[in-house]
Write a structure and sequence with these properties.
single chain; 289 residues; alpha/beta; Rossmann fold; six-stranded mixed sheet; two-stranded antiparallel sheet; 17% strand
Length: 289
Amino acid sequence: MVSAVQGLKSPLSSSFPSISRPRAAARNRSSARVQVTCSSSTPENTPLVIEKPQMNDAPPVTGGAYDFERATSSLAGKLLSSPKKVTIVRHGLSTWNLESRVQGSSNLSVLTETGIIQAEMCRAALSGMHFDQCFASPITRAKSFAEVIWEGREEPIIFLDSLKEAHLFHLEGLRNVDAKANYPEYTMWREEPVNFNVNGVYPIRNLWLTAREAWKEILLSPGENFLVVTHKSILRALICTALGLGPERFRAVDVNNGGISMFDINTRGEAMVQSLNMTAHMYTNHVYH
């Protein structure tokens, strides 16, 4: 038997101190009365009334961070005039992706037909977002991808050398299977990229310096909402430098062709990752906001 409930009073109310809430949030919150009738064999059956808050413009209830000050070090090196939002996209499938070749900074690999379709899907997926500027690598496969996404917008794309892919010297253009069979340094590139070097030049360590340069160029530009189109390795470096991770964590993150990542940057130049390698738009008609 379920006993009738005469009223509702939380037993916790006397056990914990009251929590003050922002007045603005309180003004925007209204309550809805939800009535629940409990079954009972007693004649004193009474409806249970629960005050259910409607949040409206109140703080989110899904656990979002209140702030992220000092979560990471500044990417800008100085105070920004306003917070920024940066959306970073990896270019679509290229010819050398398809042929499993080492791409690096080579300009010989171009978008495949699938890669162009992926660019169109990204354009549709990002159609619900406003961007003040678009930054892209000048290497053809990223440049072409950015041009498809940015089509129809008045502002010109800004091409940054700091968004170019890592330079991998003589490995570029080789099929991965051939590079592995004929060049011992390829194994170092795959298994311990932070120590991969050619004649004393360390591409991944240098990439971290380049990524920090790219962040400064982007964040110190006019506007608040930026779109960035680039390559996998430099994208890994952008993500890791934003989160305070060193080049030894190069392979700790991965980004698919057409994958979208989003960062919020506060006025101190500190970053918080909001999403990483989103690909729902590659399989559905999902539109981001």
